Amino acid sequence: MSLTLTVLGTASPHPGPDRPSSGYLLRGGGAEVWVDAGFGTFAELQRHTDPAGIDAVWISHLHADHSADLLAAVYGLAYGGLTPPAPIPVHAPAGCAQRIAGFLGRPDAGFLSGTFDFRPLCDGQVVRHGGLTLTSSAVVHDVEAYGLRAECAGRVLAYSGDSGPCAALTGLARDADLFLCEADITEHRGSERVHLTPEDVGDTARRAGVRELLVTHVGPALTPEAATARAASAFGGPTTAAREGRTYAV
Fold this sequence. Notes:
Elements lengths: L3 E6 L13 E6 L2 E7 L3 H8 L7 E3 L5 H4 L2 H10 L8 E5 L3 H8 L12 E5 L5 E4 L2 E7 L7 E7 L2 E5 L7 H6 L5 E5 L15 H11 L4 E4 L7 H12 L3 E3 L5 E3 L1
Parallel strand pairs: 3-4, 4-5, 5-6, 10-11, 11-12, 12-13
Antiparallel strand pairs: 1-2, 1-14, 2-3, 7-8, 8-9, 9-10
């Protein structure tokens, strides 16, 4: 019944060599959930599990660096012999299926129903897969976006998705054992707050009382090491840079 997080990708806003975009494999309570499907993460998912056997996909928002590899998954699951025994639930913002269909030049998304079962996210939505409970919380971004709180056997993982500083994110992370959080930008410019600086990340973790901070989705103006050091200074607690291929116990 342990809860673990395997990092598939951390890059923002595009993949680099050996560094896919955002994606994670969450395991707990007998369930496996692919969390975010950024560029290159479907290939990495196959290093760790059979994609046909996962219990669900959860997508924070529809920016391509968090969702585009659903297209690769369609090719693998529908045409590449990785056939799932039943359509895989995909918890994602409304319109996700239509985006995939549009890319393939199809007038509607009905042809995807044998592969994926799309289920629109909403604020406060709670779903269970095995012994794993997933709660979605709307956060501040420039499109519809959600953070995730995953709970299993008394352990809690919080994930920011893409978010600016907001009370919803602090609430989502409250008392989490592990807080996986983006640190995309080095500073805010203008009044828009749709991403987090490392200091925002550390402040949020401190206010939420999280046990451990895991920094991810670091943008091109920063290195993961620099972002993590700055976040750690603001947090004052255990802080680590998320690394591709590593599995973290929650």
